[in-house]
Amino acid sequence: MTLSRVIAFFIAALGAIFGSLLHADELPAIKNENGWAQLIIHGKPFLILGGELGNSSAGTAAQADSILPKLAGMHFNTVLMPVAWQQIEPEEGHFDFSLLDHWMAVARQQHLHLVLLWFGSWKNAFSNYAPEWVRSNTRRFPRSLSAEGLPLEILSMLGEETLRCDARAFSSLMRHARETDADQQTVLMVQVENEMGYLGRGGRDRSPVANQLFRANVPAELRHGLEARRLQMSPELAAHFHSAGRTWQEMFGEAANEVFMAWHYARFVNQVAQAGKKEYALPMYVNAQLPSPFEQAGEYPSGGPHPYYLEVYRIGAPSIDFYSPDIYWPNFEYWVQRYQMAGNPIFIPEARLDSSPYNALYAYGEAKGFGFSPFGVDSLGSSEASPGPQPGMADVYNTLNQFSTILLEAQARNHTRALVLHASSPRPSQTVSLGGYLFQASLARSWPARTLLTNDGAMLVIEGKSNEFYVVGSGLTVDFFRDPDTDDRLAGITRIEQISVKDGHWETDRELTGDQTNQGRQLLMSAHELHVYRVTLYCYKKPAVQ
């Protein structure tokens, strides 16, 4: 080896060492670029294959010992776990993090990450996770009042002592996480509070302090912020915003109660997050309980970070990095789209477990989300890879884990699409466009009877190199066409392979031909099993019309 090569070798080695040290010092962060966002861990994009624990499943060390190894074996890489205020500060000023320490230690052993869910002043609008010394002292920690003037089991977001003590407890939690976990970065993110909002008739706190503020003028910070963000407003907020008004009622009309609550919840949660970030500046988000059809504010948590009034939160809570929907309603795609606004990363912290396998494909592929998390994953048995008529979460996460690097790179290039199709869908097929081709999907049917083989199907499409695509999914039949917005050519199938990873490399399990591709005309997915298909297409000129 020549001297110049020896020098080059040592320079490269030193660069690698210093580069790894640099990334080790970097905190997890959200990188926003060109309308998409990724979570960066140790300098590299990370795909959260997550699951949220039930509310009562993170309260003992024994639960960590049994639940975390099971989830690791089912290909989860991140677990969302509650940390209750009453758990860490049972007596005022005396903190106990021993249970959290055990969960972090077991998570590291299982090569899992954690997202901490701060159940502080509110959880599902109510305040039953606050310590007894808070809940019992209503003079020091005032409650919200109902329209009838009765105290609710909801701490007022206007309570100065409530804010001070919540922020103190949260900052202590973040300081402890930094002191015990900054090097390992087991903890990736933190959810601040949980599904905040006011539940009660009229949708607004009726305490004397709240009533006085409601009769006063809207803060100039909010008025000027909304005036500057008219183009970013939701249709619901834009329809009610009258900048010439001064009071809440004048400026927001029928939406005044909910906008008032949203502003004050946003200001509260912003100060809690600020206090936490001063100790350990991990990404922080808040989640929303979404309204069911025809629900009014107060029937769902009024003033929470709902998509209608997210601009209020973005003005009032700049310390919050993004906003996330908890989606339990069947119109999953609609709610994801409502949160796909400029600069808001897509992360789904809670979703229905039974419909999550297919919805996860949509979140990662169509919404380019960096994470997805069904709720109640501790209820899964370790053998429930596919407990029903569609693939299970273990199937989906095992598959996505195999090519997470490919998926993350494709997200960054806007080279992913996805769809979910149901027998109840208003149209019998759906189409996505990628790489100059149309992918038209319909539910799988038998031949020749043409009866439905499944009620649900989904696919995630990734463009690799030109004319080559990875398709992950099941339950669909897919036709391929040339996108007329690209040119007027026709499309054909060169090759379809069913593939999987073996020893770190993609290998062909089967090359699909003949009856398995309808004589080279369609991708016929398995009706119930999840597979990865590599599809190579070609295009050709239309024949001249005589």
Characterise this structure:
The protein is an alpha/beta fold and 546 residues long. It has two domains: 3-200 and 259-380, Glycosidases (TIM Barrel, Alpha-Beta Barrel); 417-540, putative beta-Galactosidase from caulobacter crescentus (Chondroitinase Ac, Chain A, domain 3, Sandwich). The chain has helices at residues 3-25, 61-73, 85-88, 98-109, 132-135, 160-181, 208-215, 220-228, 235-240, 248-252, 256-279, 310-316, 332-338, 356-365, 393-402, 404-412; strands at 29-33, 36-41, 44-46, 48-52, 78-84, 113-123, 143-145, 151-155, 187-194, 284-289, 322-327, 347-348, 350-351, 371-372, 416-422, 429-434, 437-443, 456-463, 468-474, 476-482, 490-502, 505-512, 523-524, 531-540. The chain has a nine-stranded parallel β-sheet with strand order 12-14-4-5-6-9-10-11-13. A six-stranded antiparallel β-sheet has the order 15-18-19-24-21-22, with helices on one face. Strand 21 and strand 22 (505-512) form a beta hairpin. Helix 2 (61-73) runs parallel beside helix 4, helix 6 (160-181) runs parallel beside helix 11 and helix 11 (256-279) packs across helix 12. The longest helix has 24 residues, at 256-279. The radius of gyration is 26 Å and the shape is globular. 45% of the residues are buried. Residues 3-24 have low confidence and may be disordered.
